[in-house]
Structure formats: structure tokens, C-alpha cells
Amino acid sequence: MQSPKYTARAHTNIALIKYWGKLDQDLIIPMNSSLSLTLDKFYTDTSVFFDSTLKQDIFRLNNKESSSLKVTHFMKVLREKTGETRFAMINSENHVPSAAGLASSASAFAALALAASRAAGLVLDSRSLSRLARRGSGSATRSIYGGFVEWQQGSDDATSYAVPFEENVAWDLSMIAVVISAKQKKISSSVGMQRVVATSPYYSAWRKTAAQDLAAMKKAIKKRDFRQVGTIAEENAMKMHALNASAHPHFSYFEPASLQVMKIVADLRSNGIFCYYTLDAGPNVKIICQNKDIQTILAALAPSFSQERLVVAGPGPGVKLIDKP
Asked: What is the predicted pLDDT for the residue at 101?
């Protein structure tokens, strides 16, 4: 017996105030609250139906059968929550530029959370959906919503979820993703976080300043103060990466080209083009900018980076069903 098939679309997000470290590894409760911007250019479409004839969950990524311990674990959590006993057929397609090297776990698990819960007969409100998505990937909890989104740390499964801060971003704000590398990271985000929490002498200061950065960022967004938003985001990112340099053994996600982009941005800013960089746990740089400066920034990057490695994005929407019975 087969359940109805549901297809959901979710967009990825870029954290402007990072979370780095987990209070609970299994529940994925963060050490600090965070704030992100959902983007329009990068998204995942995921279809799910349950079938009593299946002997295990089948996961296909971009039309190729794949194995994922995270997906397996997530589906186990979902069945425990819904009482569904059948295994599922999961088809997921990432709409991210080829070899972009941009994290898609946020969009992937947000889309899976909506499609799988509906296929299991559960209609969740946004808060419950955010909590569910969090069990697959921490950043997925924010991709339930569009625009600026705050992930409230909480202390347990019931209290750790995302809330919309400004869903419809109707002011001049864009982001240029500069693709440095699409290779798998040598140190995963989870491993990096654990090492930093356990060994960095500066971790307690991070938690304090991250809370201060979050409060300042929310004020800047309310004022639509672009320069302040960019400044806080850039400084917060650098503080996160400084933790990695202070861990034992120390590590870095930067590549030489990452530093090159950061210098280009700094040079542009010194010449009156206000733009700012941020990096997650990887070498790819995202440049926060205004629409009027996009072509100038792209021209400055063009001698070093091919056009397909420069992707311009804007604020994007939250998760939604795009196909249902």
C-alpha cells in the first residue's frame, strides 16, 4: 500500500550571525542563537511517499540512488513522531549551480521535513516543522521561513526552533556567492564544532559576543542599515573562524582564493563601494552588497574568477508544497 506523494521546495540560507557549537549533538541544540538570510537562487525539491512493499528507505539525489546516514536517522525520527511504519521513497533534486560547493543541507532537510511529514499524514505548523527540520540539519530549521530568520537556541527539543524576523525583505540587499571549491571538506562542520567547543580557550567569549552580535544585527535590520548589517556579519564570521585557529589542533576552512576575495572586498570598500564578506564552514565567500554595486563588484572579481563561479542571489521564500495529491 502506497501513501500519497508530496513534493516540497525549500531554499538554502546563509547565516549572518553564525551558530558554532552544539549543546546537544543528537537533538542538534545550538550553543547560541543565530540569524540568517534565505536566498532565492539555491533550492531543493524533494518528493516523498511511503510504500509498504519497501524493505528500507530509498533515497535518490539528483536522479542517482544515494546513501545518507543523516537521511536514515531523520526518517527514523519522523516515524517515531508520526507512528508511520512503512519505509519511504525519497527523490531529492538540488537546484544549485553545477559544482557550486554551496551547502544544501539546510534546503534539503527543510524540504524533506515538509514532504515527509505530509506523506505520513501529519500537517504541522511552521514552528513544529522548524523543530522537525532541525533534527536533520541545524541550519534547516531556518529554511522553513523566507527572508531574515532567527534560530532561537532554546534548551530542549520543544524550545529550539526558528522564527521569522523579516520575511519579506523589501529593501536593497543582495548576495554574491563566490565559489572557491566544491570539494568535500577535510573537517566536517560537526567535527569542527566539537573540536572548538572542547579546546578553544576563547569559546566562552564567542558565546557572549555572538549574543551581542545578534542583538545588534536585529536592530540594524529594523533600521534597514545596510552598512551596519554588513559590518556585523563580517565581524561575526571572522570571530567564528578565529575559534578554529585557536582550537587544538587548529584548522582553517580558508583557501588562498578565499583570502583573495576578502582582500578584493576590503579594497572595494576602501574605495567607497560598500560590500562585506561572510564565510560558513568552508572556503566559499558570500559578498553582502546592494544592487547598485553588483556590476562593479563582479568586474573586480572577473579577472580572478570565471562567470560560472559568481552567483548573484537575493532574499528568498520559505518552504512550500509544489505538488500534492
From this structure: 55
Q: How far from 152 is each of 38, 109, 162, 242, CA to CA, in Å? A: 16, 18, 6, 23
Q: How confident is the model at residue 182 (pLDDT cuts 50, 70, 90)?
A: confident
Q: For residue 1, is it within any domain?
A: no
Mean pLDDT across 114-133: 98
Domain match, 138 and 88 both: yes
At 175, list the grid cell.
548576495
Q: What gap in Å lies between CA 18 and CA 35, rounded to an integer?
A: 7
Q: Which domain holds residue 82?
A: 6-170+316-323
Instruction: Label residue 100 by pLDDT band (50, 70, 90).
Output: low
Domain count, the chain: 2
